[in-house]
Amino acid sequence: MKMISKPTYRIDLSYDENYRLGPFFDGALPERSILQQHSFLDFKVNSLLGVPAGPLLNANWVTSYASLGFDLLVYKTVRTCTRPSHPAPNCLLLDIKEALTEEDIGGRLAVLPEDRGAPAGKVSITNSFGMPSQAPEVWQADVVKAKAGLNPGQILIVSVVGTPGQRHRLADDYADAAAMAVEAGAQMIEINLSCPNVVGREGALFCDPEASSEVSALVKKRIGSIPLLIKIGYIPDILKLQKVISANAPYVEGIASVNTLSFEIVKPDESPALPGKGRLTSGVCGAAIKTCAMDQAARLVHLRQKEGYEFVVIGVGGAMTAEDIQDYFNLGVDAVMSATGAMWDPYLAYRYWKLQEESKKARKKE
């Protein structure tokens, strides 16, 4: 099968245009000879590879990636109210040649000049959406459609976020959004506690043990037996990370880490790259964040073992190639999700499956 990789998300279009018209994929669908071979929080799944909330804008995106062999599918973050996306551009290629380190975080990065592209497997981007959301009646109907389009051995996770300034406390709004998602058919709930692209409090809850655990406790109370995941950002202070995990561990079945790194994004002439208030800094993802993301995944795996926690760890960040995915599993994570990698190479899940098949054949010959 000829596998030509080109982005499914068009960065020359706005978020809304990608929502309406995407994903932009017209290749052949891969075939895998597997069926429900793995367990993930009591679900039988075809693989432990998925796509996090970022690229799965609606049911069309979810079902497309399901057909491409990604089996853990996270519907993009939704709210109890309508929220527009930031204006275009929403996604820009970055001029990064080496892996970013902890010391780099919070610094300044430049976008690639328009006449240059990034090599395959080395793409790094900034995305600036601002956690937009359709009205609940729209996204609930679409979640129903997304779930109906899945294959056996695949699960639909819905990412939710609370919105400050609603009728009640932020934690209550998170819980309302989660309950709406469950009503629509979500098989798991992920509460998004981390987003560098919003100016509201909801984007930084992952740094606050008390506030984040208030949210996870209330959401878990509302959704009952439905598994609960939390999505966190990078926490360089290991003691703070321990406090955040300790506070949330009693209420969650899984932790997904990380949700981008925050940087100031500029054009080659050092003027701001993203127009509009509050957009000087933006989330960075792709190949450049793999080192930091894997470091935190390893810390979570170690912390779980040390403290006897029972949650699953989902590694996210910089998984651009099949080999990157295997690197994560070698750390001891329970699942891996790829956003930028899956956007730029829709055949990534198939490539990882092929890598596993080749490894099995090699072991049989030994």
Binned, the helix content reads 25-40%
The rounded Rg comes to 19 Å
Residues in β-strands, percent: 15-25%
Structural class: alpha/beta
Strand order across the biggest sheet? 3-4-8-9-10-11-14-15
The geometry reads as globular
Number of helices: 10
**Main beta-sheet annotation:** 8 strands, parallel, barrel
Calculate the terminal CA-CA distance, rounded to whole Å. 28 Å
What is the total tally of β strands?
A: 15
Low-confidence stretches: none
- Secondary-structure element sequence? HEEEHEEEEHEHEHEHEEEHEHEHH
Report the mean per-residue pLDDT as an integer.
Answer: 92
Structure characterization notes:
- Helix content is about 35%, strand content about 20%.
- The protein is built from ten helices and 15 strands.
- A hairpin with a 2-residue loop joins strand 1 (about 40) and strand 2.
- The longest helix has 18 residues, at about 290-305.
Brief sketch in words of this structure:
The protein starts with 14 loop residues before the first helix and ends with a helix.
Topology record:
Blueprint: H1 15-21, E1 38-40, E2 43-45, E3 49-51, H2 59-67, E4 72-78, E5 91-93, E6 108-110, E7 124-127, H3 136-148, E8 155-160, H4 170-184, E9 188-192, H5 209-223, E10 228-232, H6 238-248, E11 254-257, E12 261-266, E13 281-286, H7 290-307, E14 312-316, H8 322-331, E15 335-337, H9 340-344, H10 348-365
Parallel strand pairs: 3-4, 3-15, 4-8, 6-12, 8-9, 9-10, 10-11, 11-14, 14-15
Antiparallel strand pairs: 1-2, 5-7, 7-13, 12-13
